[in-house]
Amino acid sequence: MKRILLDAVLILLLALGATVGHGQGTAFTYNGRLLDNGAPATGWYDLRLAIYDDATGSNQIGATVTLSATPVTNGIFSAVVDFGPGIFTGGARWLAISAQTNGGAGFTPLTPRQAITPEPYAVYAASANAAGLRGAIAASNLAPGVVTSNLLAPAAVYAANIDTNIGLWQAAGTSVVYLAGNVGVGTGSPKARLQVAGSLLAGFEGNVIDPTATSSAIAGGGQDNLINAVYSPRAFIGAGEGNRIMPGCEGAMIGGGLYNSVSNDALQSMVLGGYGNTASGQYSLVSGGFYNEARGVGATVPGGAYCLASGPYSWAGGFSAVASHAGAFVWADSQSGYFTSIGADSFNVRAQGGADFATAGALATFGGPLRVNGTTVAGGSENAVDPTAVFSSIGAGGQPGFGNRIFGSTSFIAAGNANTISSNVNNCFIGSGYNNKVSSLASCIGSGNFNSVGVNSSFGVIGGGLDNVIGDNATYGTIGGGNNNEVDSTEGTVAGGYFNSAVHAAATVGGGTLNEANSPGTVVCGGSNNIAGDDFSIVAGGINNSVFGECGFAAGDNASIFSSHAFAWGDGSAETDAVLDNSFVVRASGGFYLYSSSGNHGVELNAGSGSWASLSDRHSKRNLVPVNPTAVLDKVAALPLSSWSYKTEGEVRHMGPMAQDFYAAFGTGSDDQHITDLDESGVALAAIQGLNAKLKQKDDEIQSLKEKLDALTAVVGQLAAARQHH
């Protein structure tokens, strides 16, 4: 138990008369101040009291008295205690007190014991010996009813000693009535049939109005251990038991009920009735119910239970409603758990059974944003939000027999039929459609029929379509639409089409049909019956294409890759396979055309051909300059030629000039690092022409020599013949 201290015991009161020798009852009122853990206590406490003849000794006098459920407000309590007769017999007495919270596990002794002041010894008069009395007792010292006829000795009172003049009062049987004008108590000029100047105390004799509580009243109520008490001026308690108006609460009122209080300087505040209610804010009101509190200035609790209006000018009603903001209105239904306002000047309602805004045919309008905090079913038939699905809503849809169901919190089904958001998943959405199901956190289905997001596939999205499935454990999966598409991996995507599947992490199918991306990071853009079957491979589209090599790219018709980092494109005329790593394989039975401009400039590999054809059309050329074939031939003759191998080609041999020498000799091409086939063949043709010119010149010279030789041969022949004749 917390540390409980009894601090500054105020008084021990007895309703004592002043008549000498007149004994009282044995009960007396004990008012005190109780500290719980160092702070003024408020609540219900059990008190245990005992009388001892010493401040610290163990000799108890009489029985122990236990006062259960004693109300304490702001540290102040009042209790009527009765130890019975024979306790106060003239000797010294000390009061020992122990306390615990109501129904607690054990009492805590409060120290030190309280010395009994002289006033309670008025109870000793009940056993006083009249022999010790001297002199006459004035009539003013006799309490009413003390002297009765059976106590008078015979002939002790004569008729002449009785005053028969009763003035305006008249006897009416056992009653005395007043039939004249107004009656004033504490005033000489009453203005009504009965006017009491000052405070009015009625009801149980132990009720208390503090001397500082001027012009206050207790109209009734109270009983043993449950007195009503007023400690503020101009305050009023109508009836009930255990009610308190504490200091600083001028003008406060408690109508009745049990254990109600006005506290904490709650000026002009009221508790009309109920049980355990408190008005602790100035100008606040609690109308009834139990364990409610109006704490804010001008706050109101109309009734209910466990409600708190702590914001200024706030309103809280129903069950466990908390209006903690200024100007907030909070009403809560019978569900367990506190329902709290969301902000200043807000209107907050928790109504699991639904909310009906009847506007007599007019539309309900809202001047600001409307927040529906809790579960809502706006329309449709047989739609239902499970009680555990807090802050979830169904907008419409739900034909008879096909209601929508939400079992997860903060989720929404806009329309459609037989759609379901499963339990233990939050922040989900189904737009419309039929028989769609979401079973993972923060996932959604836009529309369509028979679509589903599986278990442990958080943040999954299906846009629409038919029979699309994001399987279990496929976090961040996406299906845009289409039908019978499937995502079975984390971050997998199928944009559309039908019977497509992305079955590995970050795999993607753009569309088409019967396409499959089944390795990490693979992509099938579209087409039909394509497979991206190795990591980070792509099938751009087409039909019957496949990639079974890492980072491969296939497209067209019937192209396949069986190696890594390869490219394959097929035209469907035959199978096109890339079987070497880092290869580029293309089948184009109609020819291959490469253009290097917006016109037809480029090269061609004609159908069935094995060599490239370069564009050489006269109409595509300009700056035509004649060539000196002989000069070209001379340069070719002087051109260094070598046999060589490319550094990247291994031991493969080639023969020819260096591009730098070729460019220096002929100045053709775009730079001195490349030789085009066109330039090389042009130089060869020019050199052939130059060689041909030289050969013709030689032929002419040979012909001339031959003719001369023939002429000489003829002369020689003639000379030889002539010599023979001689």
Main traits of this protein?
mainly beta, disordered N terminus
What does this structure look like?
By secondary structure, the protein is mainly beta. The protein is built from 3 helices and 61 strands. The strands form 10 sheets. The chain has a 25-stranded parallel beta sheet that branches. A 9-stranded parallel beta sheet has the order 14-16-18-20-22-24-26-28-30, with no helix packed on it. The protein has a 7-stranded parallel beta sheet with strand order 13-15-17-19-21-23-25, with no helix packed on it. Strand 2 and strand 3 form a beta hairpin. Helix 1 crosses helix 3. The longest helix has 49 residues. The radius of gyration is 57 Å and the shape is rod-shaped. The protein starts with a strand and ends with a helix. The N terminus is likely disordered.
Describe the secondary-structure layout.
Layout: E1 4-13, E2 27-36, E3 39-40, E4 43-52, E5 60-72, E6 76-82, E7 94-101, E8 108-115, E9 169-172, E10 175-178, E11 183-185, E12 194-196, E13 200-201, E14 208-209, E15 217-218, E16 229-230, E17 236-237, E18 244-245, E19 253-254, E20 261-262, E21 270-271, E22 278-279, E23 285-286, E24 293-294, E25 300-301, E26 308-309, E27 315-318, E28 321-323, E29 329-332, E30 339-340, E31 347-350, E32 376-377, E33 384-385, E34 393-394, E35 405-406, E36 412-413, E37 420-421, E38 429-430, E39 437-438, E40 444-445, E41 452-453, E42 461-462, E43 469-470, E44 478-479, E45 486-487, E46 493-494, E47 501-502, E48 508-509, E49 516-517, E50 523-524, E51 531-532, E52 538-539, E53 546-547, E54 553-561, E55 567-578, E56 584-586, E57 592-595, E58 602-605, E59 613-614, H1 629-638, E60 642-644, E61 654-656, H2 659-666, H3 677-725
Parallel strand pairs: 11-12, 13-15, 14-16, 15-17, 16-18, 17-19, 18-20, 19-21, 20-22, 21-23, 22-24, 23-25, 24-26, 26-28, 27-29, 28-30, 29-31, 32-34, 33-35, 34-36, 35-37, 36-38, 37-39, 38-40, 39-41, 40-42, 41-43, 42-44, 43-45, 44-46, 45-47, 46-48, 47-49, 48-50, 49-51, 50-52, 51-53, 52-54, 53-54, 54-55, ...
Antiparallel strand pairs: 1-2, 2-3, 2-6, 4-5, 4-7, 7-8, 9-10, 57-58, 58-59, 60-61
